[in-house]
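Interim report, section 4.2 (structural modelling).
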Amino acid sequence: MEWRDEGIVLSSRRHGESAAIVTLLTRAHGRHAGLVRGGMGRRLRGIYQSGNLVSAAWRARLEEHLGGFVCELVTNHAARLLDEPERLAGLSSACALMETALPEREPHEDIYEDFLTLLSGLEGEGWAQAYVQWELSLLGDLGFGLDLSQCAATGASQGLAFVSPKSGRAVSAEAGEPYRDKLLTLPEFLTHPDSGPPSFRQMEQGLALTGFFLRRHVFAPHHRDEPPARIRFVDRLRGMSTLSGMSGDLETSGAKEGND
Amino acid sequence: MTVSHIDKLIGLLARLPGLGPRSARRAALQLLKKRESLLAPLASALTQAAETIRICGECGNLDTTDPCAICGDPERDQSLICVVEEVADLWAVERSGIYRGRYHVLGGTLSALDGVGPEELKIARLVERASAPQVTEVILATNATVDGQTTAHYVVDRLASCGVEVTRLAHGLPMGGELDYLDDGTLTAALKARSPA
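Predicted structure of the assembly:
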């Protein structure tokens, strides 16, 4: 058995002295693991850092074997983010999430494409927004998409401020107000992507929203905990939002700003 | 019964890094051939090491004394702490001979998946040490890997309240490195960290 594909490194674990068991998210073969000889060695270690885009060749005697990878580096996403604490935490969180959420050897081209977009998005301006939107689209790709187009109670498509934890549908500010303790907050940037960069506070609300549904639909059914990398990422942003105050450092003209 | 003793020796040697069953057999044969000059001294050195070498309660280094020779050396700069992942990294910095402060061995890195959290690393102890009045600078010398830098960023956050200067090693061109042969990650890091000539 042999194939060639492009893939993104999700994780690499030491195996023996210098070998590594590397998991890639590939375009046509899904999340796929393989042994890399010398993968933890001096020469190759840099290639197998989470988030790097590689061109991979997989080889095994039988299809069900673990097999081995030989990879060539295409884009070194990890190195570009090493000095940026928040973005690097986002990258680790995304890779850990892919590793936990996806079944092995099942191709998901949409998820792969979205992940590629996220990787380049993490280097750009609206990286935080890109991350939350990526988690939201991941939920959709996995079959647990949220319906944020209109209010579940009134049918209104404007003034959406909450999400129902039961149905995963949006609820407008007025219909949701009496039940606000039971509803999840829907930050404005998710319904109006053009409303400018979100504050750290809104980011945190967005991550709380996606985190709730990820835990319920993705982690819990597999008896898995939320990956520590995601917890640390959320903690880091929470730290930032406390530092920069309630409104955050990047002010937006949000109708809900300061409501909670 | 002698055969099983030899097998046991070979089996144990084969578990050492860099040795497999074949090279372990060669090593065992060599040891047995040079019984007086190699086997006996090695056996006593191993016994001594097992009895006397311990982990320094201060920095996490390996030494026969606790605190270790580095922590106990009054000549060393008390105001500097260099944070490394493993004892091997401490030895590497020590080999360079340029650093005259003290160390702190974390004992690994935060891992995204394997459940290595801050509690498993000696971070609380580091915060405690960095809070001492004589310490003015903490140098982060973790590896330039995703896990290494994630750990470094985490340590920076934890040290924020200690009132010490926190620095990290530069990333960039290695000595004797030719641009043509460098990977683009190293080049990116080197360009980002460029300094006035």
